[in-house]
Amino acid sequence: MIHTPHVDWFAISTMLVLLGASFVALLSAVLVPAGARRPFAATVSGLGFTGGLITSIWLYATSAHGHLVVSGAFYRDRWTMLTQIIICGIGLVTTLLGAEQIARPHNDHIAEFFSLLLACAAGMTFFVGSANLMVMFLSLEWFSIALYVLCAIDYNVEGSLEAGLKYLIIGSFGSAALLFGSALVYGATNRIDFAGIAANGHSNDSLLVLGLAMIITGLGFKSSSAPFHMWTPDVYEGAPTTVTAFMSAATKVAAFALAFRLLRTAFPAEEHLWSWAFAGIAVASLAIGNLAALVQRNIKRMLAYSSISHAGFLLIGLSAGSALGGRALLYYLIVYSAMAFGSFAVVAARERELGEAVTLDNLAGFGWERPFLGVAMWFFLFGFAGLPLGGGFVAKFYVLSAAYKHGWAWLVIVGVVFTLISLYYYLAVVRAMYMRPSEELRLAPVAGGSPPREPLLHVAVGIALLVSVGSLFAVGPVLDLTKHAVAALPF
Amino acid sequence: MTVGDFTSLLIWLPIGAAVVIWALPLSRYATGSLAVLVSLAEVGLWIEQAARFDFSHGGVQFQQKATWIDDLHVSYHVGELAFSLWFVGLTVVCMAACTAYGFWVGRERPRAYFGLMLFLTGATVGVFVAQDLLLFYAFFEAMLIPLYVLVGVWGGPGRLGATVKFVIYTMAGSLFMLAALIAYGVHVGTFDMLSGPISSSRWIFLGFMLAFAIKSPLFPFHGWLPDAYRQSPPEVAAVLSGVIAKAGLYGMLRIAIPFFPDPASYYRTLFMALGALALVYGSLLAFRAPDLRGVVAYSSLAQSGLIAIGLFSGTTLGFDGAVLQIVAHGFVSTALFLIAGTVERRTTTDQFALLGGMARGRPALATLLLTTGVISLAVPGSAAFAGEFLILAGAYQRAWWWAAIGAGAIVLAAMYMLRLISAVLHEARGSTVADEALDLRAGELALIVPLVATLLVLSAWPAGITHHTGTSVVQTSSVTP
Questions:
Q1: A405 touches chain B (CB under 8 A)
Q2: Smallest Cα–Cα separation from B327: which of B139, B472, B138, B459?
Q3: Which has more confidence, A1 or A251?
Q4: How many CB atoms lie within 10 A of CB A355?
């Protein structure tokens, strides 16, 4: 007879809700008539993410004392639950965006899109709570495979299939590195649970150190940090913009939240190694992301490089390794994911209007033509640049303070210098939107007439704007959330 | 408790009005009227505060404080020192005049325009009343955002290059200030300007000073200045030189000198020398500039240099003179840029080669330009004379040759200002000056006359400011000579 462990079903209810919704959405692909498929699947997805939000908020409220559940495989604590809330929130706004944007004009695979989106988010919510290397790897593959397919879902669009394939190949390489690293760590410590690794590891054990390095490499691929970023611009550019918006926000949240927990819990004795490693990766990401973004004309590619540079800022918080660094990381993730999602959503609107890739040239006049989206983009870009128009300002201040408190004044200077460089390309977008008249370029919307109304897209962008601006004024409440979350980790 | 106690209102009233203007589809006329009304309400609020300010008491008044980021001890803390009150007064009056000027000339896209002008008002007031370093920094940066768009959208043909240069220069300075304030605040455990201790770190001091030297600007950080002043719409150029640039000088007076007394005296010679260079070099460039705005732009550089000499002389006379000179020059350059705007509207140009003879048949224009010009060249009895005299007296206490350089530059000021007046008003009639070009209209007079009248009042009673600067709080033991 097989011994089954006690399962705290409530602790994993977020995943169950999302998976259930995913299943229903998938069934609707065959059971619901084609005409009703888009609204049906979108509603299921919206309900699924709302349910996920409710359960994760409920769990956040009731998990003040973090503990392991399902025979030590999963953390039920506020760190997990806060990241789950963020991921479900991103999923919800992605649903709004996808309901209007994905699979136009033929409705091909619309139900599959929502099914995959829900499954992907379920994988991520599992990933951020994983308590051992096995669960970590399984859930990583789980959400990665969903993402590979999502990238290729608009196979009529040139580049979508290519993006999916490229992500699959390079992503697998990253997963392989992570798996190999996990094996080495297991070999060195004889344990796969995070706490056990910390208890049995010796930081002078070269096997363990090599394993740690490979795990960092694998997570570097997922978080698109340089020098593991090569896939990012191509995939972000080729994938449907809705998917890019989801991926740029949610994948970063999952990868960084897990990375911080893993390093704090499993490798606290090696902090002197990984904090330097991450500081190095941070500098590389800041340098490559910002410098490459300077020369981009295609907005999606530019935002992709910008996301690499923000990985650099997140890594500054990560490398500080302290409770302050953890809070800075979470705060930054909340603000960044709102801004990243929002900016890609605005790009999606322009892309649909023009029927072609959005570049700095064909953005001309956009700000005046569609004032709300223009102003929102303005806020996102200035927020990315760390100007005090939103939480991006506090986020940057916070990670840099964490780095300074860690004793790394040089990292503060590096961060500041690259922020300055980043201004150039963020302002280039604002310049294109507002300061160059569209008549100058004689562009007309392909469809003719006024652009599509897109009420859901406006709601999604509005939510992103609210989070990114609101987090500047409501710093206190947001920081309290992150403070409780960080309290779940060992320091 | 009256409405004047709420210093925050001075910041958030215009910003709130900006949001309202952006959100509601008001007509051009309604938008402009609302913006002008709000900026006049700001002036009213300020008068209420000035009337109730207790100058004998000293220290920060009308304080409001709330926690912002508690684990790093950052707070939303606003309040006014005596000299902040003068800076705020300068801001609200000049911004009201410039907003009204925008309404008068009928700027395109009025909702965006007036929203940004109001946002700029709120952010600038925020700089002068913030009593927390991060809050100060946030407002310091926030000023840049509306300015960037105001110059970039409503500016002249070379606006795109000008904005890039302006933003990159300014941000280069302020980001190093961010690094410096993180280093200071995290190290001492508070960002509050009232409870923060003094520091002797030279690096942190230089980080702050870089930002302030670019904003003011001082030589050699003035590269952004000529393009920005020439390509902006005239009222934005007026705001830039009259108000925004003063934020850099305010930063020196409020942060760099009082918080870092040892580094400030260590680098005294350096910054006085940079000020003197800006003064002499700016004056020479102003004398050579071929256009009206060029002269005013470079004279602003020269004046910033002079004021920096006063501040870094570290003497009571220097501080008081600097505060007076900041206010006087703020009004002078706002008035001059607005007059330049009216000249450009009549002639389409501000090149001296194409101007001339405008005094004939245009008495109001001639009188206002002449009055402002004469005050600006520091003729004895004017507010600028009082300010410059105090600055030079303060510099003289430090060493006689600082005063000699300053006095020499005042002669240069007379030369470039008289050249400007004669090139625009007198000489032969310029090719672009048509007989039909009217004198200043009632609307324009309503904007410029109050500015000039304020200058005349200050000329008559400079002690109104110099006896109420409250700069004694700035001077810690090691700065006094």
A1: yes
A2: B459
A3: A251
A4: 9
B109 touches A: beta carbon within 8 Å: yes
Nearest CB to B172 within list A400, A420, A483: A420
CA angle centred on B10, ends B4 and B15, rounded to 5°: 150
Res. B481 pLDDT band, cuts 50 70 90: very low
CB contacts of A424 in chain B (<8 Å) are 164, 168
Cβ within 8 Å, pair B160-A417: no
pLDDT single digits (tens) A365-397: 888 888 899 999 999 999 999 888 888 899 999
d(CA B439, CA B425): 12
Cβ atoms of B314 and B307 within 8 Å: the answer is: no
Q: Using CB atoms, which residue from B142, B149, B175 is nearest to A388?
A: B142
Beta carbons of A435 and B144 less than 8 Å apart = no
CB A358 within 8 A of CB A298: yes
What is d(CA A208, CA A187) in angstroms, rounded to the nearest whole number?
8
Domain borders along chain B are 270-481
Q: Hey, what are B259's tokens?
A: 């918080």
Distance from C-alpha of B237 to C-alpha of B151, rounded to nearest angstrom: 9
Q: In A, which residues are within 8 Å of B187 by CB distance?
A: 404
Which one of B71, B138, B141 has the shortest CB-CB distance to A479? B71
- The span from the CA of A415 to the CA of A396, in Å, is 9
pLDDT per residue as tens digits for the range B172-219: 888 899 999 999 998 888 898 888 888 888 999 999 999 999 998 888
User: Would you call B6 an interface residue with chain A, using a CB distance cutoff of 8 Å?
Assistant: no
Interval A154-178: pLDDT, tens: 877 778 888 889 999 999 999 999 9
Nearest CA in chain A to B156: A435
Query: Who among A405, A409, A416 is closest to B178 (CB)?
Result: A416
* A79, pLDDT greater than 70: yes
Determine, for residues B71 and A368 on separate chains, whether the beta-carbon distance falls below 8 Å: no
Question: Is B68 part of the contact surface with chain A (CB cutoff 8 Å)?
Answer: yes
Once rounded to an integer, what is the mean pLDDT over residues B314-325? 89
pTM above 0.90, yes or no: yes
Q: Which residue has the tokens 């719409």?
A: B233
Report DSSP letters for B65-94, one per residue: EEEEEGGGTEEEEEEE-HHHHHHHHHHHHH
Q: Do A401 and B171 touch (CB under 8 A)?
A: no
Residue type, B323: V
Lookup: tokens for A163: 């993006």
Q: Is the pLDDT of residue A305 over 50?
A: yes
Predicted confidence (pLDDT) per residue in B94-117, tens digit:
999 999 999 998 888 899 999 999
Nearest beta carbon to residue B69 from set A382, A416, A475: A475
Are B118 and B35 in contact, with CB atoms under 8 Å apart?
Answer: yes
Orientation angle between helical segments B316-347 and B82-105, nearest 10 degrees = 0
Contact criterion met (CB < 8 Å) for A435 and B152: yes
Which alpha helices (DSSP H) does A70-109 contain, by range? 78-101
Q: Are A126 and A19 in contact (CB under 8 A)?
A: no
Q: What tens digit of pLDDT does each residue of B248-263 get?
A: 999 999 999 889 989 9
Taking CB atoms and an 8 Å limit, are A435 and B159 in contact across chains?
A: yes
Least Cα separation, residue A371 to chain B (angstroms): 9
CA distances from B39 to A70, A278, B90, B179 (A): 63, 50, 12, 34
Compute the nearest-CA separation of A323 from chain B (Å): 11
pLDDT at residue B327, as a whole number: 93
